[in-house]
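The protein record passed on for reference:
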Amino acid sequence: MKKYLVLSVSLCVALTLASCGSSKESAYKKAYEKARAQESVTAQQQPQTQAPVVAPIVEQPASQTTVIDNVDNATVRTEDVTLVSGAGLKSYSVVVGSFSLKANAEGLQNTLKAAGYQAQIAFNSARNMYRVIASTNDDKAAAVQSRNQFRSASYPDAWLLYKK
């Protein structure tokens, strides 16, 4: 008798769970249909073509720009170099080119000399590089000013070297 009772209870539970699944499916189907209907109504209400919004470009002349050279914040690379060609190096130098081949450094030196600069070549044995120096100065402020002139001319990668 207990067998029949357990069997009938489990059959009732199985039928109850099976009927819940179909109601969930129909609820999802109803929600889907409702969303589709609402989407089609929204599509009908919106105009089919929309003109793009274009903001006018207003051109204004630039205001005056003042460049302040902060000598204290200027980056200076310290290297132990020996003079290869030139009159002599002071404490701060403006380097406009670095080459591993001496012939390339001499070519840039000749170009700078033709332009009227006192170009020199220094060798860094630790890095095996020839540094082409466009100008050399005793104080950092003059070197920074000279570097900025070379950067604005045709050597945008010019940098400062402090000789050890």
User: Anything to note?
Assistant: Strands lie at 76-79, 82-85, 92-99, 120-124, 129-137, 159-163.
